[in-house]
């Protein structure tokens, strides 16, 4: 396997291997020696056509902790603004010797195009494409969930855990990747949203669908709040902040209806006051900061497994993602 484009490409065993590798790498990386020689001499290009804080920085941190050379490319300030195509950008990166390209793009399908075009020979990792997928976000969410709900046990999946994903499902690549990956890992997923923020065809997704957040909260082991993505909406369809928060926002009162062990997740960036109150975002039940840390470990694991460098104990990795 050569690329990671979709969470659907991962079998249960692929996903568990990535989570286990991330656990092992996080333990090594957690020691005072923060750097491993694993990917010395390899070049990872972060190719970002869309804004990012967490994903871009954590891929950079992950590659550097594995001793890869990192090139950060941002479309803003590049020749893309002069009209250069994805193809010519890719050919330029290939000429510079990229072993892996981590791509975020506003167009759904751009990573798939890059991976199948023959423009580059290296590995392609989807860091979020349009409203399509964000597979490493789903992996880091699964990692954080496994730690909180299953104690981070190696080899474990999320069988029987009930995960509720709430909010702007229509525009969410995070929701699409999570529904796929979490169900592959055995979780029972429910998506909750106003009808206007659910995609056509959601009935065929491998999850339950509800419009009533209060009804599902008591039966959730984790509640994942999504950002309302105003930048992808026609202004005429903006929900008002107050109305949205009243029906679909998570505040302290609603959080109290969740089981005691249940956690609150958010991929970030958050609209505090809209889908989540500051009280909930800053509570110990909220895993948002743990999710960011998990992102570095999981992205180290993905790069390590794809690029097949020598591991923490010197063994060679086998590539896992397709
Ligand atoms: N969760 C996430 O993808 O955040 P960024 O857009 O900041 O990378």
UniProtKB/TrEMBL annotation:
Q: Where would I find the Aspartate/ornithine carbamoyltransferase carbamoyl-P binding domain in this sequence? A: 3-146
Recorded superkingdom: Bacteria
Tell me its EC number(s), please.
2.1.3.2
A cellular component term from Gene Ontology for this protein is: cytosol
User: Which pathway or pathways does this protein act in?
Assistant: Pyrimidine metabolism; UMP biosynthesis via de novo pathway; (S)-dihydroorotate from bicarbonate: step 2/3
Kindly list the positions annotated as binding carbamoyl phosphate.
54-55, 104, 134, 137, 268-269
User: Which keywords does UniProt give here?
Assistant: Pyrimidine biosynthesis, Transferase
UniProt-listed InterPro entries: Asp/Orn_carbamoyltranf_P-bd, Asp/Orn_carbamoylTrfase, Asp/Orn_carbamoylTrfase_sf, Asp_carbamoyltransf, Asp_carbamoyltransf_Asp/Orn-bd
Question: What general EC class does the enzyme of this chain belong to?
Answer: transferase
> Where does the Aspartate/ornithine carbamoyltransferase Asp/Orn-binding domain lie?
160-306
Q: Which reaction does it catalyse?
A: carbamoyl phosphate + L-aspartate = N-carbamoyl-L-aspartate + phosphate + H(+)
> GO MF annotations for this entry?
amino acid binding; aspartate carbamoyltransferase activity
- Entry binding sites for L-aspartate: 82, 173, 227
Q: Which PROSITE patterns match?
A: CARBAMOYLTRANSFERASE
Q: Which GO terms describe its biological process?
A: 'de novo' pyrimidine nucleobase biosynthetic process; 'de novo' UMP biosynthetic process; amino acid metabolic process
Looking up Pfam families in the UniProt record yields: OTCace, OTCace_N
Oligomeric state and interaction partners are given as: Heterododecamer (2C3:3R2) of six catalytic PyrB chains organized as two trimers (C3), and six regulatory PyrI chains organized as three dimers (R2).
**HAMAP family the record matches:** Asp_carb_tr
The similarity annotation says: Belongs to the aspartate/ornithine carbamoyltransferase superfamily. ATCase family.
What does the UniProt function comment say about this protein? Catalyzes the condensation of carbamoyl phosphate and aspartate to form carbamoyl aspartate and inorganic phosphate, the committed step in the de novo pyrimidine nucleotide biosynthesis pathway.
Q: What is this protein called?
A: Aspartate carbamoyltransferase
This chain's source organism reads Streptomyces mimosae
């Amino acid at each position: 396997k050569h690329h990671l484009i979709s969470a659907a490409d991962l079998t249960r065993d692929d996903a568990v291997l990535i989570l286990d590798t991330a656990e092992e790498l996080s333990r090594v990386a957690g020691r005072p020696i923060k750097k491993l020689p694993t990917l010395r001499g390899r070049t990872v290009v972060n190719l970002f056509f869309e804004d990012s804080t967490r994903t871009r920085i954590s891929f950079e941190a992950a590659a550097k902790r594995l001793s890869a050379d990192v090139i950060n490319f941002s479309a803003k300030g590049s020749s893309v603004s002069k009209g250069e195509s994805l193809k010519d950008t890719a050919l330029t990166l290939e000429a510079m010797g990229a072993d892996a390209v981590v791509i975020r793009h506003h167009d759904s399908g751009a990573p798939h195009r890059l991976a199948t075009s023959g423009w580059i020979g290296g590995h392609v990792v989807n860091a979020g494409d349009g409203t399509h997928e964000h597979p490493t976000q789903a992996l880091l969410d699964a990692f954080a969930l496994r730690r909180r709900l299953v104690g981070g046990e190696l080899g474990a999946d999320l069988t029987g855990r009930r995960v509720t994903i709430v909010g702007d499902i229509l525009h969410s690549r995070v929701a699409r990747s999570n529904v796929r990956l979490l169900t592959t890992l055995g979780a029972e997923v429910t998506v909750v949203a106003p009808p206007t923020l659910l995609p056509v065809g959601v009935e065929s997704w491998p999850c339950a669908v509800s419009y009533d957040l209060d009804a599902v909260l008591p039966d959730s082991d984790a509640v994942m709040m999504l950002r309302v993505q105003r930048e992808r909406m026609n202004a005429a369809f903006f929900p008002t902040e107050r109305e949205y928060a009243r029906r679909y926002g998570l505040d302290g009162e609603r959080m109290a209806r969740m089981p005691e062990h249940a956690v609150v997740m958010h991929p970030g960036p958050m609209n505090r006051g809209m889908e989540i109150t500051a009280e909930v975002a800053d509570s110990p039940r909220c895993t948002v900061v743990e999710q960011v840390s998990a992102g570095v470990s999981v992205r180290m694991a993905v790069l390590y497994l794809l690029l097949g460098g020598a591991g923490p104990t010197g063994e060679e990795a086998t590539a896992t993602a397709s």
